[in-house]
Amino acid sequence: MTTMTRRTALASMGAALATPAFLKKAHAAEVTLRVAHFLPGVAPMQTQFFDVWAKEISDASNGAIEMQMFPSMQLGGKPPQLADQARQGIADITWTLPVYTPDRFPVAETMALPFMVTNAEKTSVAMHQLMQEFGQNEYKGLKPLAFHTHDGGKFHTRGQKISTAEDLKGLKLRAPNQATGKMLELMGAETVFFPVTEMVVGLSNGVIDGCCLPYEVVPAFKLQELTSVTNEPEAGARGLYCNTFALVMNERKYEGLSDDLRKVIDDASGAALSQRLGAQFDKFEAFGRSVVEKQGNEIHTIPAAEIAKWREMATPIYDEWIGKLNDAGHDGAAIVARANELLDAG
Description:
By secondary structure, the chain is an alpha/beta fold. It has helices at residues 3-18, 21-24, 44-60, 82-88, 106-109, 120-134, 178-186, 196-205, 218-221, 223-226, 251-255, 259-267, 271-295, 304-313, 315-327, 332-345; strands at residues 31-36, 65-70, 93-96, 142-149, 154-157, 172-174, 190-192, 210-213, 229-233, 244-250, 298-302. A 6-stranded mixed sheet has the order 7-6-8-5-9-11. Strands 2-1-3-10-4 form a 5-stranded mixed sheet, sandwiched between helices. The longest helix is centred in the C-terminal third of the chain and has 25 residues, at 271-295. This is TRAP-type C4-dicarboxylate transport system, substrate-binding protein.
């Protein structure tokens, strides 16, 4: 073997030794992660986020990590069981809402209180920070990958304009969560709780006058055809409510990965992913609003000064939540105050 050939061979051997193991197996996945959620496979969340995110992780690991998607609860169970499915290893990663299991994840639920939302991106950043500061022990057995919210809800009605609390009196509205339902009742509305599928029937037959949901939900259920007026807070005011989301991974599965593969997961999660998910929901929101506009429905503005009054009216709801946080071993007042501080700073 010539000197040049030996040098080339040694150089190649050195490069091979220096290459992480997962990079050597570009065409054979070392790890398959099952990702489960409750939405249909055709939902924008699947096609515009999960599919893209999975490919990014596959590319970053050079094919060593493969994600298998199980939308529509294809691994069995019901949406409230998603966090436990990840903890038990039925799925490796799940995307779920803390409000599906009321009071179980109280820190993560805090941003789902009334008027604890600006837009989805900023509120998601605030929620991630809140969980870093106060919610580290809330998801035991799980590796949180991201926390986020959707944009603030709006009142979609069959014709009623809402400018003041007085306009809510007697209206029958479908409420999206317990805290928002209590807020609406404080202002005189009659609230009902049922799945969104039943909400469509309720709007169609006049059982309810409207619902409180973000624009992003509108296209999937054709709410623009079932309602004629959308009442939204004035720009700059807090949104009516938002629901919170958690993207979590089985902790044992995460810890069982090699250092290189854990880094791939770490690089694709955390604060940046929370912000990205929030921004994704702001895009969904803008599209939903465009659908309402295209339908020709009226978009009515609720003055910011009125929203401020409603926040004062919701004080008993915040006080009750602070008590729940205290009962769970937290400093409830500090958590609610910090949440508001983060939202105002955003």
